[in-house]
Structure prediction request, 246 residues.
Amino acid sequence: MTVHFIGAGPGAVDLLTIRARDLIAASPVCLYAGSLVPREMLEICPPDARTVDTALMTLAEIVEEMVRAHEHGLDVARLASGDPSVFSAMAEQMRRLDAAGVPYDVTPGVPAYAAAAAALKRELTVPTVAQTVTLTRIAARATPMPSGESLETATGTVVLHLAVHRIDEVVKELVPIHGSDCPAAVVAYASREHEIVLRGRLDDIAHAVHEAGIQRTAVVIVGRALAAEQFPDSHLYSDTRCRGGS
Prediction:
């Protein structure tokens, strides 16, 4: 028996990896956050699978479900939206599974920021413009940020998860660093049929978010790479790069 932490991607079922699909199809128990994982994904589960929406459950209740499945020799598909390596609460679940002696593995998924960048048709790293991507969030009504980590220290292209409901605060903190004219975008429900894409600048993106009524399931991206046009080609494919050979 194994608990499979599975990156469920940004929402579109056809963005699941083949491994993720096969593990879901073979697991008699599936734990998922109903507020983030679309119901269509559950159609992959075995017909008689136990499916549990964890959206309103505590950490202790979620782990209890996993331990119970382990005691009955049942594999568990634990779906995490996006990729489980970022903002998935996977670490705290693993810590408790280790204490309970329950084995687990991890299957990566398409992260939400990658789906958002695809919707924008933009590369987040552009030569001489941005070579760093900062994935972060804000601390309001959530676990406090570690010392030394804040929007004031975010560099390059800034990607914020779990922050669109505080877009005014985000703008207020980023304008002094990036400038009010810095390109900004918000992508809600990336990859899904009801995807919403907003493009603008720091001085008008908050208004666009309020007008669209976006309050959750969105990624905020800020940085000059979003509108970069005049930049040199990368050295990787340059004619002047030495590629060896005779």
Remarks:
- The first strand starts at residue 3 and ends at 7.
- The two ends are 54 Å apart (CA to CA).
